[in-house]
Amino acid sequence: MEHITLLLGIVIVTALVFDFTNGFHDTANAMATTISTGALKPKTAVAMSAVLNLVGAFLSVEVAKTISGGIINEDGLKTEVIFAALVGAILWNLLTWLLGLPSSSSHALFGGLIGAAVMSMGWSSVNGGTVVTKVLLPAVAAPLVAGVAATLATRLTYRISSRTDEKSTAKGFRAGQIASAGLVSLAHGTNDAQKTMGIITLALITGGVLNPGANPPMWVIVSAGLAIALGTYLGGWRIIRTMGKGLTELAPKQGFAAQTSAATAILASSHIGFSLSTTQVCSGAVMGAGLGRKGGVVRWSTATRMFVAWGLTLPAAGLVGAGAELLTKQGTWGVATTAALLVGGSAVIWALSRRQPVDHTNVTAEEIGTPAVPSEPAGVVTTAIAAVSPPPAGPSVALAEDLAPFPADAPASHSPASAAAVADPARPATV
């Protein structure tokens, strides 16, 4: 019993560590566009997001119930399996954070849980129907729905504001961005914080502390909310840079449309118990907003790397979880070895991140040509969609053309501003 009690405590602490990594991994979902457009200062943005994530954790337990009693069969499930699952999820979260890739913390958790359960009890331990209907289908549909909604919202926004003053509307949309970013943070708390609640509840059920089907106790809700809020406040600056600058350049109107579309999709899924990836939803909305403005450019090289990470998340975390479970089932020494590997792997990733640190002081800095903000022209998809998009109001088209990336080794005469001056000598060159 002492061994089980100690192991249960280790699992609870590890689950809260995962919740912490989930917080800083997913800060970009709510605040990347708000920071990149200058609507809020970086530290102010992450503080606001942290508070609202904590509030959101108390609004619902539907997603927690899906995880604690839906994906994995509870009969015969051991506490070691949950520990192994968390190891796979944490290491994948840290690796993708190091690379600045907005992958899914949710799918990392599900992959680790499935891989560990299969290694322990076989494929019969996994509820395939629940995985398909409440994990895989939302993973495909949610970013597409959010992307299409953001595209349409962006076009509608530009059309409505086409006859208004650009400066006054920019201020208004920045204020709207702050409100919509708060809504995304609230939605994130209602969805992602609950995943850790579900895992801790599942561990308590396997340890005999709770009865099967029980709701998360209040102390579980509070601790999970605090852990994700703390992680959010520290800020996943690498991923914020990718979401805010790496996928596309967003104006305040686009940021408002993207965040509103994402928040709507996340809140709707939380209400019906779909444990979708908020990262995928927000990324889809950002790309949709980029495509919704004529002249907008989506950097497809960055998007492709992101898509690959999405596809690898479930199997990669599953393999790590299965390997961890292979160790933990050996007994006490196996659990200790797994814990040591988790700490060692996390330390190595942290040390590598210090070689090129990204924080609130340089998160909005332009680094054209780096993996975070690659230099590339508009692709085929962007060009085709832009050709049928309504023109934006005021100088937005010219601004988009002037800001479009161009090769660093091109002579000055080939820059967008000088090219425009050659085409129209009466137009002053811009810097």
TrEMBL record:
InterPro entries: Phos_transporter
Organism: Streptomyces silvensis
GO biological process: phosphate ion transmembrane transport
Chief location of this protein within or outside the cell: membrane
Recorded GO MF terms: phosphate transmembrane transporter activity
UniProt name for this protein: Phosphate transporter
Membrane topology value: Multi-pass membrane protein
Lineage: superkingdom: Bacteria
Gene Ontology CC annotation, any one: membrane
Annotated Pfam families: PHO4 (PF01384)
Entry's localization field: Membrane
Transmembrane segments: 6-24, 45-61, 81-101, 108-126, 132-153, 196-214, 220-240, 307-327, 333-352
Family: Belongs to the inorganic phosphate transporter (PiT) (TC 2.A.20) family.
Region (Disordered): 408-431
Alphabetical UniProt keywords: Membrane, Phosphate transport, Transmembrane, Transmembrane helix, Transport
